[in-house]
Amino acid sequence: MRIRIPDDTTESEAQAMAEALATHFEDDVILVVDSGDEVGSASYDGAERDATEEQVEADLGPTEREETLIEEIEEILQGGPEKYKEQLPEQGKLFVRDRVDLWFGDDFLFEDGKFAEFDAEDQLPADGLITGAAEFEGRDLHFMANDYTVKRGSMASKGVEKFLRMQQRALKTGRPVLYLMDSSGGRIDQQTGFFANREGIGKFYYNHSMLSGRVPQICVLYGPSIAGAAYTPVFADFTVMVRGMSAMAIASPRMVEMVTGEEISLEDLGGPDVHAKHSGSADLIAEDEEHARELVAKLIGYLPDNADEDPPQTEGTSPKFSPEGIDSIVPQEPNKGYDMFDVIDRVVDAGSTLELRPEYGKEIITSFARIDGRPIGIVANQPNHRAGAIFPDAAEKAAQFIWTCDAYNIPLLYLCDTPGFMAGSGVEKEGILEQGKRMIYATSSATVPKQSVVVRKAYGAGIYAMSGPAYDPESTIGLPSGEIAIMGPEAAINAVYARKLSEIDDEDERAQREQELREEYREDIDIHRMASEVVVDEIVPPSDLREELTNRFAFYETVEKDLPDKKHGTIL
Question: Contact 497/471 with Cβ under 8 angstroms?
Fold first, then answer.
């Protein structure tokens, strides 16, 4: 290139300028004055410059300062005292860094706050808590994991700060949160500055509440979560407990004995069986650490990243069994039991079901599944258990599941075969009206697409809770075995005709009259009568049920529903 320079430039200055410009522009340079005379030039020698740069690069490398930092990081990654690490295999546990590697491997993205409490006199690497981000099953998420080798995973001021930042960032990013809990609770001997502060441990549950319904929160319990630490799993949308190592309770066995005099083990107080069968606080039970990861990997596949997105769809697969078997499975007799999963397995994609809280409120099934690759939430009565009557625990379970599905835009399929809500003094004391109210409220308020199938009996308020015609389903479908009534034939005849029947002295005549009344009543409640009165939208052959539901869920995928303009309802 030719570059013009002032006339008064000396020859030595021109030559120096030419060499500098050739290096800068990586090109040959000729300098000229106004008259056009050349006063200096330089050629670009790339090979010489590259060799010089290579030599400079060869001379560069980690300084002592960087090497010191690397050593400090390696020490932090070792966790707490070795004697506590040695105890982990006896408890069936992984060291927290190995646990994080099991979950994420090379998909671990970054960690925040690794140097928390770096200057502490005690050995508190990362203040006993790992927080960061990772890719899990193709999904970016936030995570936290307690280090049980550091003060038994207890929480103090720096760990609390890291926990809160992770939650608050999740609100901004709209990405799921995974809690890998193994914490004994707040660090009592260091509680000043984090327990009751505005930005202290109590803010965990405020943030849980803000995140609730915004992004999925999944908690896996690996150890005893006592007192405040027990609230994270119950605030999460989904809780997985690991058998043989996890528990959660409002107080430790020692505290329980001190307050109440009751002597009880931690397993009996708050182990997996307690929360799977009795409290309903555990959604899934894992047999070991690897199984816990497998369960969450399956669970997250039904969920969107946040409430603004739709759940991920996959390639559809055929059902496990042919839909042609459905009609043979469902008995015509309303009081005869059968397993509703035998119907589900003939409707949904093979291998796609994931039942939540299977041991709690067993008369209602709450399960994720897919129909032609589309995630759905199933609420189904289970005639094999308590004849499918709805008890308080089942109503509570169903209400929470419906509420969660609606929060994350997961369509709902109701499979109705119930005599209604259970009656009696026992269930009244257990709050059947309160819990039934919540189930009906959740069904009423759900704005996701809903399909309701009357599989067999739909008696009493059961048809309301199971999203019957009055509850704004996109469709109410009947199978030929379906019946809709205030109550079943036996109860109705007893209520209306008991006195008249008692006046018939001849037993055979009385039995014949009772049978006639029963048949007349069943004609009135038969699904064909309901279809004739346009109570239900359609009666479909059971063999066509899967195809019918596939088409209806696809068609109503973009349906929009509005709730009344209000702050929120008053039913919890």
Answer: no
